[in-house]
Amino acid sequence: MSRAKYPVELPPSLGHAARKLAKEDGVSLSQWVSIAVAQKIGSIETAEAFFKRKAQGANQVDFLEILRNAPDRPPDPGDELDTA
What we know:
This protein is an all-alpha fold. About 60% of the residues lie in helices and about 0% in strands.
């Protein structure tokens, strides 16, 4: 398998944590980062496939009707948008 190098700059706290976890897993930092990137890609691609599947057959008119019927009330505590 061919490999490519991607220089990555991490904040010191992430670098220290990644090195510590790689050591605990008994792998090199490079291998640990490769696995972490692969896991992230897998989770995003899985989520993308899930939402594409859920969107099949969706109807914008129905969606807008649901929004029109939603109650007009303030958000629940903790669900507020940060307006700063």
